[in-house]
Amino acid sequence: MLGYIGRRILLMIPMIFAISIVSFVIIQLPPGDYLTTVVAQLSAQGDVVDQAQLAALKAQYGLDQPMIVQYWTWISRIVMDGDFGQSFIWNKPVSELLAGKVPLSAMLTISALLVTWVVAFPIGVYSAVRQYSVGDYVATTIGFLGIAIPEFLIALILMWVSLTYFGQSVGGLLSPEYRDSNWNLGKLLDLLGHLWVPILVLGAAGTAGLIRVLRANLLDELHKPYVIAARARGMRERRLTVKYPLRVALIPFFSTVGWILPGLVSGEVIVAQVLSLDTAGPLLLNALKAQDMYLAGSIVLIVSVLTVIGTLISDILLAWLDPRVRLRYR
Amino acid sequence: MTQTLPVGEGPEVQTSVTSTDAGQGAVAVAPQWKLVWWGFKRHRLAMAGMIVIVAIYLGAIFAEFLAPYSSEHYNPDYAYAPPQRLHVLDEGEWGLYVYGYKSEQNPETLALTWTTDESKKVPVQLFAHGEEYKLLGLITTDIHLLGTSGGTKAPPMYLLGADRTGHDLLSRIIHGARISMSIGLVGVAVAFVLGLLLGGISGFFGGIVDTGIQRVVEFFMSIPTLPLWLALAAAVPPGWGPLQRYFAVTVILSMIAWTHLARVVRSRFLSLREEDFVTAAQVDGASQPRIIFRHMLPSFSSYLIASLTLSIPGMILAETSLSFLGLGLQPPVVSWGVLLQEAQNIRAVSTAPWLLLPGVAVVIAVLSLNFLGDGLRDAADPYKH
Fold it and tell me: How close B92 gets to chain A, by Cα (Å)?
C-alpha cells in the first residue's frame, strides 16, 4: 500500500510541473507583458510614468530576463512565498483574492461530488437490479437528459422557474441582509438555503453519468457464475446482491472521480457565473476578459492542481478498496 | 462540463446478427458493413437519432430556404414579441395565417406588453417571396419555405418569438445550426487526425513512445478543461475576423478532444495486434503498412466512426459554453451559444422565456448524436457474441 502511494505521488510531480508550464504559457499568451498593462493603466489615468519605478518593477518581475528565468522566478515565488503576483484590476495581490474565493469553490465542488454519490447510488442499484422496469427506464432517460443538457441551461431554467412561479431569486450565495454581517447561525442557514441550487445543478451531469456506469457494472457482475451459484444454494436475493456484486460495482464510485472531478470544476466556473456566486469561476472569467493574466493564470494553476490532488486521493481510496489495483504495481 | 463516458455503457441491446435479419445464408456471406447495418437497424433510438441528425444537417445546409428571414433581419418595433401560433385552418378551409400583434407600453417601465390582435390576420404562404439569398452559394432566389405574403413589406412573423432587437428567433436558430453543428464536425476532424496519428503510434510501437504519449493523454484528461479553454480563447486577438475566430475556437476545442480518440485507437490497436489474422498476415510476409491499412484498419473503422460520433456532442456543448460566456464566437456570428448570451440576464429570460429555445436545440442535437453514437458502438463489432 505505501509503495503504491509513493509511486502515485511520484507520478504526480511531472503532472504538476506540466500544469505550472501551461499556466505560465497562459500568463504569457496575450501580447505585451504585465508592465505594458501597468503603463497603459497609469497613462490612462493621466499619471506620468516614473522611469525608475518602471525599472524597479521590471527587475522585481524579472521581465528583462529570458523566458526560462522568468518561469523560474514566477514558480519559485509561488512555492517559496505563496506570492502569485499582482492583480491589476483589483490592485491587490492575487493570493489575497484567491484566499477568499478558492475555499468556497472547493467546498461547492466537494459537496456536489458527495451529492452525486448519494443520489446516484440508490438509483443505479435499483436500475440494475430491476432491469427494464419502469423505474429503470425513467432513470435511464433522466441519465441521458442529464448528460445532454448543459449545466448552465439547467441553472437558467431553475432561476427562471423560481423567479416566475415563486417570485424568488435563487442567485447569489447570501441574501442581501446577511451580505456584510458577521458569521452567525442565521447567516449559515441562509448560506445553506442558497447553496443547494448550485450543488444540485452541478451534481446533475455527474449523477447521470455515474448512474449509467454503476448500472452497467452491476449488470455485468449480476450475471457472473458465482452469483448464479449462490442463488442456486438458496441465498436470499438481497444478501446475494449486497454481499459481493455490489462491492465490486462500487469501485467506479472512486475510479470515476478522475473524470467527474474535472467536469465538476469546469461546471463550477460556468454555473457560478450564471447564478452570480462569489467564487473563483466568475473571478477567472472577469480576469480573462480584462486580460488580468497573473490572476487568470493563478486560478487555472490552483484549480488544476487541486483537481489532480483530488484524483490522487480517490486513487488511494480505490487502492485501499480494491486489492487488484494496489497489487498490480508490486 | 463535457463528459465522456467510459466505453461499454448505454442501453444493452442484443446486437449479434442472426439469420432472422436477412434471408437464410445471407448472413454468412454478407460483408462487414452490411452486418453492422443490420445490427444498427435494431437499435430504435439510434435510428431515430440518425434521422434527427440528418434532418438537422440538411436544415443547416438549406438554412436560408428554411428560415423565414436572414439572420440579420430585425425590427426594433417588435422587441421581445412573443411566439405566434401558426393557424392552419381558416374558417373551415385550408389557409395559413397568424394573428397580428397589439402592443401596449407600460408608462413607468417603458416595457412593451404584447397581446394577440385577433382582428388582424396576417396571411402566411408556403414558398413565399422574401429576402434575396444565394442557395448553396450558387443560385440566387428569394423563395422561403414559409413567409408572410406581401414580401418584405408585410408585417413580420415571429413563430418562436423575437429577441431584444426584434430578430426572429426561429430564423436565428436555423442559421445558428450551421455554425454550431459544423464546429462539431470540423473540430472532430482535427481531433481525429491528431488522435489517429498519436494513438496509432502509441499502440503500434508500444514501449517508451507509448508511455510518453499516454502520460500526455492522462494529463489532458485529469485537468479541468473549461478554465483551460477559456484561457486559450481569451488569448485569441480581438481584431480577428469571424472566420479566423471560428477556426481558432475549433482548434482550441480539438486540442483537448483528441485525447479520447487517441485512447480508443490505441486500445483497439493493442487488442488487434494479438489477433490471429494479423499474425497470419505477418507470417505471409505482408509489409507493415499493408498490415495496418489492409488488415487492421477495416476491422476497427466502425469503432472509430462510433467514437467520432460520440465526440461531436462534447464539441457542440463546449462551443455553446464558451460562446455563452462571451469568450467563444462573437456576434454578428450566429451560433446557438451566441444566441444564448441573450439569456444570461435572468430579467430578460423572465420577460421572454423563449430566449432559452436555442438551448432546446442544443439538447436535441446532443441527445440525438448520443443515441446515434451509442447505436453505432453497439453495432460496431458484428462478430462479438
Answer: 37
Q: Does position B19 have pLDDT exceeding 70, yes or no?
A: no
C-alpha cell at A180: 456584510
Query: How does pLDDT run across A42-70, given as a tens digit for each residue?
Result: 666 666 667 777 777 777 666 667 778 87
Q: Which domains does chain A have, with CATH numbers?
A: 94-329 (1.10.3720.10)
Closest CA to A284 of A197, A29, A273: A273
State how far residue B229 is from chain A, nearest Cα, in angstroms: 10
Exposed, middle or buried by CB within 10 Å (0-12, 13-18, 19+), for B7?
Answer: middle
The pLDDT assigned to A268 comes to: 84
Nearest to B46 by CA among A88, A225, A55, A144: A144
Min distance A76 CA to chain B CA atoms (Å): 22
Residue B276 cell numbers, joined: 490471429
Q: Which is it for the CA torsion A33, A34, A35, A39, positive or negative?
A: positive
List beta partners, residue B316.
Answer: none
Q: Which three cell numbers stand for residue B1?
A: 462540463
Whether pLDDT at B324 is above 70: yes
Amino acid at A174: L
- CA–CA separation, B325 and B361 (whole Å): 18
DSSP per-residue string spanning A67-103: HHHHHHHHHHHHHHH----EETTTTEEHHHHHHHHHH
Q: What is the mean pLDDT of chain B?
A: 78
Closest residue in chain B to residue A156, using alpha carbons only:
B346
Is the sign of the CA dihedral A226, A228, A230, A232 positive or negative?
A: negative
Q: What is the ipTM, given to two decimal places?
A: 0.78
Paired strand residues for B147 = B125
Cross-chain residue pair B9–A147, CB shorter than 8 Å = no
Count of beta carbons in the 10 Å neighbourhood of residue A121: 18
The shortest CB-CB distance from B227 to any of A18, A147, A284 is to A284
CB proximity B151 to A under 8 Å? no
* Cα gap B262→B214, rounded to integer Å: 9
CB of A142 within 8 Å of a chain B CB? The answer is no
A and B: number of Cβ contacts within 8 A = 157
Query: B2 in contact with A at a CB cutoff of 8 Å?
Result: yes
What are chain B's domains?
79-160 (no CATH), 173-384 (1.10.3720.10)
Share of chain A above pLDDT 90, in %: 0
Please say if the pLDDT value at position A178 is more than 70: no
Cβ of B231 within 8 Å of Cβ of A288? The answer is yes
Contact indicator for B230, B322 with CB cutoff of 8 Å: yes
> Which has the closest alpha carbon to B173: B364, B365, B361, B367?
B361
Contacts of A260 in chain B (CB under 8 A): 3
